[in-house]
């Protein structure tokens, strides 16, 4: 009986990790518990596969949108009307939670945004998005990790975290991080673990470091509701977010975390108000709601940044989907966001205005958005942001006023 | 001849799947003639092919899926009818959604977007219904009150059965072969040209057949032949959507108002041949997409050919000449795409890309440039002869001198452990389960770029902790019956470090000793 249960749980865990991963910084920033001050939190959500920004926040006011997005275009009416954010932009109907946050001025959209990467390979695009370098090929560390290195390091996070198989590149680097995923596997006992760490210390320091980190965070973290309940991809996204929020809400929990959700590469049968993309957006929306409820009063000081490697073609392809493109959206959510706005220098969707006559032309550098958030949340200087966190990004000045 | 245990570790671990336990004598044989030991497998005629009773061809498997889907549909419709009648008969709102038994197949279908792991999870959970974990949380009454009646276990369907049979055949082969170099090459090429079983039922049932039919026959053959076999295989056409791509000016494109999908064309150039930065443009991607319109497989009706087999559909093919990488390809139907692939296969960027990946896989995360250059030259001179390429790799001194710093992937790790313990798998369940846990679900990478191939990816804190948990479980289960020091002799003999030997000697139990041995650097690095 026990055995069957274990096998069930372990396999579900494997399932869970197929679609999502989470990792966080292992130390508190020193100012985190400054008396009476803010206790800021930042969660970065990476959507791997390239999100169709034009289907998530649709420019209904652009006369060319409906024609380009064709069979999958959102509309203001019909059975599943898009949710108007202002007189021009409308949100996908699968995201009612984000819409509510937006109305409460705790969520914002940045549209026609892109990293400096201008080709269309997912893997290079994700490298640029997460490494923070201006071009691909740099995968040793991510911008969020380098931002952490620039913060004063406080005490080690002591609340328990268990561990999931991969750390997103954005959080990889010298600053120590930890991961978490819903647990189930019967664990090796401490004695065996310590003997192995000792052997590694003598023979294989890299493995010693990796295993020690893995072990340290394996200890607590599982209230009953953190056991995997399994479920479809949407439920998995919610579940990872719920667990992450619970950890981050703790007084000694991590303040900064990154998650990745897979599956946004909608080449075929992307769907409009309902369908494949709608399903995924519903999962993302649920995850944001979980962050909000799980973080409780900490939500007030939280910013969630949702970003993707690039956008998709403005015109749908021959299979009711979209191919790799350029400009897309970024989303901000959280009590600390100065929200209720779509921030965009809208380039227009006329053929002549499209990037290479096919993609939404980026008019905002994603790095400017992220730098703005990092500056407002953690007080990082222009220089550190332009040289260390996002090297060679002086031209993309931190966007002002994203955070209250 | 002098015995060189260190070279034996290179032969067995870098090139192969590690030494087998029991009376194999692998380590001694490898230590006596390391290069000969590795190369022996390349000389065996048909040694890379995999045939096992019950493994079927791609068309047969495709037809099995079509038949299964028809059955499910019929069952669902029958269930709907029954439900209607029941609803008429029963008073409404008496039993709130306690999911009547006949509703289950429908529920199951709704969740078909689940990842590959779902299916595996369902299988692993033998006595448990697959629906239980897959049901949306909101429908779960309450964690404290388990559902009163547990549904009976569901027999595996043909897709799950096939996947497991294919997995078992592959695992058994990997466990039984002498060195494992040829099988490691299969895994390498299979990952290079990966599909993902999580794409859908056809991909899941075809995953093993794809490897047997498109990869294995060419692992010691020509790259161009493998490329053609891969891009014309129904599994790849399905995985990267090409069966949906229609030439905009083709008859089908005009009639159905649908058109190009450039997914496969892009990945052919980016991931299969030229590599990013390999000298192609967006226009080339679009051109190649047009050139290979019509490359599809026959569907369940069999209008185009035997259901589940590759066909060229003239009606979907974009008419006219196409310019690709500066060369014009005149309209020639299927031959237009075959000519384009043949040219891409011998492009200098392809030679460089393949040589780099091969050296990175077998030798070091940062591939020595001299060795890459040598393999690239071999690729060019032999027009992509993969046997010559593999031989050149084994002949290279760099491959023997480089320290064993690569990390075994989860697949390498579970296979090497099974070999050392001399256990021929009879059921793939535990292997599949562990691979899911460790982030390398069999034939199911997250994207078309396959699983990562660097030590950093597999030596992550989380991954190491999970490996240890798995090793501890193996130790607990198998430790009582083995002598860990004997196993260390089989695995590394005098190439084992003194610290590893001591750690194993001083372990508090055989169980613990086995866990530590499986986790030792000698077993983790290659």
TrEMBL record, chain A:
Database matches in InterPro entries: DUF1501
Pfam short name (any one): DUF1501
Domain of life: Bacteria
PANTHER family: BLL7424 PROTEIN, DUF1501 DOMAIN-CONTAINING PROTEIN
Name assigned to this protein: Uncharacterized protein (DUF1501 family)
Automatic annotation (TrEMBL), chain B:
Positions of the UniProt region annotated as Disordered: 77-106, 124-154
Any Pfam family matching the protein: DUF1800
Ranges of Basic and acidic residues composition bias in the record: 77-87
Domain of life: Bacteria
InterPro entries: DUF1800
Name of the protein in question: Uncharacterized protein (DUF1800 family)
């Amino acid at each position: 009986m026990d055995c069957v249960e274990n096998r069930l749980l372990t396999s579900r865990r494997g399932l869970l990790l197929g679609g999502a991963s989470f990792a966080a910084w292992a130390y508190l920033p020193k100012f985190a518990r400054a008396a009476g001050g803010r206790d800021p939190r930042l969660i970065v959500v990476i959507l791997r596969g390239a999100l169709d920004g034009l289907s998530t926040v649709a420019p209904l006011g652009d006369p060319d949108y409906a024609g380009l997005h064709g069979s999958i275009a959102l509309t203001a009416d019909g059975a599943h009307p898009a949710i108007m954010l202002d007189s021009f932009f409308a949100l996908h109907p699968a995201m009612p939670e984000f819409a509510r946050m937006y109305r409460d001025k705790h969520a914002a959209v940045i549209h026609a945004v892109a990293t400096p990467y201008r080709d269309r390979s997912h893997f290079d695009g994700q490298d640029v998005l997460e490494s923070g370098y201006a071009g691909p090929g740099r995968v040793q560390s991510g911008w969020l990790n380098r931002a952490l290195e620039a913060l004063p390091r406080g005490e080690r996070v002591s609340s328990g975290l268990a561990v999931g198989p991969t750390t997103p590149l954005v959080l990889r680097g010298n600053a120590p991080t930890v991961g978490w995923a819903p647990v189930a596997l019967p664990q090796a006992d401490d004695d065996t673990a310590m003997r192995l760490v000792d052997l590694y210390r003598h023979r294989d320091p890299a493995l010693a470091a990796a295993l020690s980190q893995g072990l340290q965070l394996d200890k607590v973290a599982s209230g009953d509701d953190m056991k995997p309940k399994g479920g479809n991809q949407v439920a998995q996204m919610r579940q990872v977010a719920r667990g992450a929020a619970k950890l981050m809400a703790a007084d000694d929990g991590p303040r900064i975390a990154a998650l990745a959700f897979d599956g946004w590469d909608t080449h075929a049968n992307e769907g409009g108000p309902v369908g494949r993309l709608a399903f995924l957006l519903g999962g993302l929306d649920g995850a944001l709601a979980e962050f909000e409820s799980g973080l409780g009063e900490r939500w007030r000081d939280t910013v969630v940044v949702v970003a993707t490697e690039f956008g998709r073609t403005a015109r749908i392809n021959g299979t009711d989907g979209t191919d790799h493109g350029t400009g897309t959206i970024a989303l901000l959510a959280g009590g600390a966001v100065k929200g209720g706005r779509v921030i965009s220098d809208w380039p227009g969707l006329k053929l002549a205005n499209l990037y290479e006559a096919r993609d939404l032309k980026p008019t905002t550098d994603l790095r400017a958005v992220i730098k703005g958030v990092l500056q407002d949340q953690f007080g990082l200087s222009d220089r550190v942001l332009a040289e260390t966190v996002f090297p060679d990004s002086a031209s993309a000045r931190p966007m002002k006023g994203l955070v209250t | 001849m002098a015995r060189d245990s260190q070279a034996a570790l290179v032969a067995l671990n870098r090139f192969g799947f590690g030494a087998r336990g029991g009376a194999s004598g692998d380590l001694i044989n490898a230590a006596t003639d390391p290069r000969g030991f590795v190369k022996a497998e390349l000389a065996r005629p048909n040694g890379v092919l995999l045939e096992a009773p019950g493994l079927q061809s791609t068309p047969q498997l495709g037809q099995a899926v079509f038949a299964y889907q028809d059955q499910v549909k019929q069952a669902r419709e029958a269930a709907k009818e029954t439900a209607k009648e029941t609803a008429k008969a029963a008073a409404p709102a008496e039993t709130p959604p306690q999911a009547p038994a006949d509703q289950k197949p429908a529920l199951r279908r709704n969740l078909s977007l689940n990842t590959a792991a779902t299916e595996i999870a369902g299988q692993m959970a033998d006595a448990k219904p697959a629906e239980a974990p897959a049901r949306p949380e909101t429908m779960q009454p309450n964690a404290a009150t388990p559902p009163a009646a547990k549904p009976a276990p569901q027999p595996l369907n043909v897709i799950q059965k096939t996947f497991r049979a294919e997995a078992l055949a592959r695992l058994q082969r990997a466990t039984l072969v002498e060195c494992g170099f040829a099988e490691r090459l299969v895994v390498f090429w299979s990952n290079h040209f990966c599909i993902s079983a999580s794409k859908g039922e056809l991909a899941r049932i075809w995953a093993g057949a794809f490897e047997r039919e498109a990869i294995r026959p060419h692992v010691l053959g020509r790259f161009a032949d493998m490329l053609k076999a891969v891009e014309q295989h129904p599994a790849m056409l399905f995985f990267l959507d090409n069966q949906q791509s229609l030439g905009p000016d083709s008859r089908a494109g005009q009639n159905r108002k649908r058109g190009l999908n450039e997914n496969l064309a892009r990945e052919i150039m980016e991931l299969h041949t030229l590599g990013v930065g390999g000298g192609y443009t967006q226009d080339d991607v679009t051109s190649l997409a047009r050139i290979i319109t019509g490359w599809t497989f026959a569907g369940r009706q069999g209008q185009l050919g035997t259901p589940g087999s590759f066909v060229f559909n003239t009606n979907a093919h974009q008419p006219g000449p196409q310019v690709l990488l500066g060369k014009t390809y005149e309209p020639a139907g299927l031959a237009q795409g075959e000519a384009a692939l043949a040219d891409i296969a011998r492009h200098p960027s392809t030679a460089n890309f393949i040589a780099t990946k091969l050296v990175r896989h077998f030798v070091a995360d940062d591939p020595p440039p001299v060795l890459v250059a040598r393999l690239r030259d071999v690729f060019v001179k032999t027009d992509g002869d993969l046997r010559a390429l593999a031989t050149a790799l084994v002949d290279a001194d760099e491959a023997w001198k480089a320290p064993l710093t690569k990390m075994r992937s989860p697949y390498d790790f579970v296979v090497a452990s099974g070999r050392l313990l001399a256990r021929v798998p009879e059921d793939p369940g535990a292997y599949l389960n562990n691979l899911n846990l460790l982030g390398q679900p069999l034939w199911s990478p997250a994207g078309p770029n396959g699983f990562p191939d660097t030590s950093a990816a597999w030596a992550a804190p989380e991954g190491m902790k999970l490996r240890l948990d798995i090793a501890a479980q193996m130790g607990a289960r198998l430790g009582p019956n083995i002598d860990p020091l004997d196993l260390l002799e089989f695995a590394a003999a005098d190439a084992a470090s003194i610290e590893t030997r001591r750690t194993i000697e001083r372990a508090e139990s055989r169980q613990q000793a086995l866990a530590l041995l499986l986790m030792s650097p000698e077993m983790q690095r290659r």
